[in-house]
Amino acid sequence: MGASFGRGGATQSLADMANADCVVIQGSNMAEAHPVGFQWVSEAKARGAKIIHVDPRFTRTTAIADKHVRIRVGSDIVLLGALINHVLTNELYFDEYVRAFTNAATIITEGYEDPEDLDGLFSGFDPETNTYDRTTWSYADADGSGRPTAPGAAAEQDPTLTHPRSVFQLLKRHYQRYTPELVEEVCGISPADFAYLAKTITENSGRERTTCFAYAVGWTQHAQGAQYIRTAAILQLLLGNMGRPGGGIMALRGHASIQGSTDIPTLFNLLPGYLPMPVAGVHDTLDDYIEAVGPQEQKSFWTNADAYTVSLLKAWWGEAATPENNFAYDYLPRLNGAHGTYQTVMRMLRDEVDGYFILGQNPAVGSANGRMQRLGMSHLKWLVVRDYNMIETATWWKDGPEIETGEMRTEDIETEVFFLPAANHMEKSGTFTQTQRMVQWREAALAPPGDAQSELHFFYEFGKRLRERLADSTDPRDLPLQHLTWDYPVDEHGEPDPEAVLREINGYDVATGEPLSGFGQYRADGSTVGGCWIYAGVYADGVNRSNQRPTRAEQDEMSSNWAWAWPANRRILYNRASADADGRPWSERKKLMWWDAEAGRWAGPDVPDFPIDRAPDAVPEPGATGPAALSGTDAFIMQPDGKGWLFAPSGVVDGPLPTHYEAQESPIGNAVYGQQHPPTQVFFDRDDNPMKPSSGLAGSEVYPFAFTTYRLTEHHTAGGMSRWLPVLSELQPELFAEISPELAELRGLEPYGWATIISPRTAIEVRVLVTERVRPVTAGGQQVHQIGLPYHWAVGKDAVVTGDSVNDLIGLTLDPNVFIQDSKTGACDIRPGRRPRGPELLQLVEEYRERAGIAVAGEPNPYASDLEEGRYDASIAHAGNAATNADVPVADDDASRAPDAGAWPTGEER
Question: What is the pTM of this model?
Fold first, then answer.
């Protein structure tokens, strides 16, 4: 999808932020949500860097920033797009960098049409399915015919960057209407603030200086979340800030191993190391799969996907994985649609799911549209909840909101709920992988109490018992379980040795048992085992490198011997781009990697993210494929063509260039194009997911205000780790809403009094915090009031503090690329006083819906989008995939046709 997260992680190390000359924090309140990492922003400031915070609220992050740019939620693409336009129009881009390392010179096929031509749509849009045929977004074949070709194959180029279909010219045309005036109209940002931002980032980019962007769920949790980040990646490529010290894009992940949970995934559509799950009818054989994941016309390291895949299969099925049975490839399940959080809940509601495991989540209060989650669980036969507190997901059947309203009665609920005690993070040893791709070891501080188990212990025992039950089975469907490698050494308590698991993840030679030193040693012939190819090297030479903890005096400038970062212990990805086309550092001040001609290799304090002996002037042999096809300037080695993508010819389903659309519940119309909402967003048109009428339609005024969610330092996600702790609960005892003095006066709200917030889904009560930290913005020709809501509370009887769940307010619209929900752009009304209790609460919500013209249960919604259709697309499983653009047909129902989040979005925020 671009340079910023082609491998699923941040491009820089957190400590490298101290080397930035400017840090733009947008979509994050880093000081409060990532306080440990924020020390490096403070260090950058102490060294003279400019800190800019772009956010709807004034926060603790803002308090140390040089500039606060207040923005309307949901409008970030307009701001970033205007910065791109400013850079292009004023020729402030890093010309040498752009020419050498991006696809600016590549020609796009003749059939491509832009939203400038189609009033907000790209070419290939099918209104029947709300999907794109992306063939016309392709590169043009090098033969000059204008026909499409796959990225990585020979494509037509224009080194002058003047061809009208060159990426560079298409980029200029696409963003030409993103002006400071549009920023003021859409984002509510003054021309002076925009000028400050534009001047600061351009003055702090180039040969001598670098700017870093940092984001968190304020960017990701939108129906265009992937495109928010893509826009920043385009800007950073134009400014020459990728792969360089103090540059890049820092993806601020949540609690400790959110990064790890996508590397070795809890996502339904991924295998370890960002290998995609096979899709039924598309990847029927191992050859089909390898051809799709690692097409050989690419230059990237994805062409070695056969080695990564076979080594993974050997890790799972050992001696049972042989060349004769395609290394047990048929043991892998196949996707027949999207199987994420929200589709699963809808299947529950249709009585299509018997049982459900909840591990490390609290979806009864932590997922969007919490009522749908709780009602879904009431349709299960059994539910297993593993946690170390009696969270609301374990108790909704007796004290949830629907019990109070009478929508559910405990005696009518047939779900059998099992609560299993779990060890917390201080009670287990092993690795966690944090925001900068760093794998770190931790030792258990104490043993878990009673029957509480770590996840490793639980699943090891669970697997043993399943295998024992099936030991005598002759049913072929049981072979995958019977043949699993499940022989880890255990301690006197039965706890598997986590280092043994890490060794398997790292990989080893089958014949000798020796650990592998890097993913380059993985083989496709079955001679190597490897549980996650990007982690290869973490156990090199039999040393647990995640457990390296030298003193400060023993560390080098990169802290490269502190723990271990994937891949290959590189601290800055794509660091070949830190030197110019000839291999010389762009400047002495920003020196990182360089070509040592005498030694014939790349040198510098980091591990080269490039073939170490590939000279800057190297030209691949004709017909070369894979890494051998990388020229000396193909710095972005995980991209099919070796270039940073200003224009994405594949890998995204909603457009090759980020384009602004208004969120589903936006208070204003789209000032950029006639297309109001993202045309490919996943929308669930259901009675239990009602939405506010779109701006300009009758009834939209019933929910006049915008709300957005955020987190507090004192609480943790949905509160399962903090609301049971008296000290933290005392620091933040009650749910509150931050509102401006203007909104307080408008609605008659008293400081510290009660208020009721009503969305089309439900109503909650909050304490009122009247503060200058949130202020209205003028956008779309009107005053837009924005309400800030922390999302940590929930209704239940077991926690020290309780309160209504903010996530109950949120409706379901999803990003079509990564399937995350939009939690940041809801619509509501607010009024004084506490909410009604019991059935009166339902009456209040229904009265608002009726005034807005939203359908009552069982009737069609006249304002619903027709975008409930969605299809899981195999070609977006990872960013480097140059496979076919065809959609994968799946079952014809609203749940399985709408892609959705797996686990990392839920863990990230909720």
Answer: 0.94
